[in-house]
């Protein structure tokens, strides 16, 4: 008697590998975006904060 999950062992392994690759790609994209954000955000704040203060007062 086999469990439903074992029906296609090789296919399931391939699926796991594909999911792992997708996860790694997504994680890489998140890291790249975070690094870009770290470069861009301080400059953005320097430019926008004085204007925001002037606008509020």
Reported for the largest beta sheet, the result is: none
What is the number of beta strands?
A: 0
Mean pLDDT: 80
Radius of gyration: 23 Å
| Elements, N to C (H/E) | H
Low-confidence stretches: none
Distance between the termini: 75 Å
Describe the model:
With 57 residues, the chain is mainly alpha-helical. Helix content is 84%, strand content 0%. The protein is built from one helix and no strands. It has one helix at residues 9-56. The longest helix has 48 residues, at 9-56. The protein is rod-shaped and about 60 Å long. The model has no long low-confidence stretch (mean pLDDT 80).
How is the topology of this model organized?
Elements: H1 9-56
Task: Summarize this structure as a short list of keywords or feature phrases.
57 residues, mainly alpha, 1 helix, 84% helix
